[in-house]
Write a structure and sequence with these properties.
The protein is of the alpha+beta class and about 60 residues long. The chain has one domain. The protein has two helices and five strands. The strands form two sheets. A three-stranded antiparallel beta sheet has the order 1-2-3, with helices on one face. Strands 4-5 form a two-stranded antiparallel ribbon. The longest helix has 10 residues. The structure holds zinc ion (ZN). Zinc ion binds next to helix 2. The site of zinc ion has 8 residues, from helix 2.
Length: about 60
């Protein structure tokens, strides 16, 4: 998920404890996801974010 923390945004993996902090805005976090092989997974109508480590494991 991408979460707003104070006036910054944090990209958090929904499958492990990986996260990347300090994005200036939401779009910057989206761009980071695309550039760094994060995956968006639609789970029960909600978008989960999967970091490259988790995306490379087929069991998750
Ligand atoms: Zn992960």
């Amino acid at each position: 998920m991408i979460e707003k923390v104070g006036n910054k945004y944090e990209l958090q993996c929904d499958y492990c404890s990986n996260y990347v902090e300090d994005f200036e805005d939401f779009q910057e976090a989206i761009d980071y996801k695309k550039a760094n092989s994060w995956k968006s997974v639609n789970f029960n109508g909600e978008w989960n974010d999967k970091c490259p480590n988790c995306a490379s494991r087929s069991s998750l």
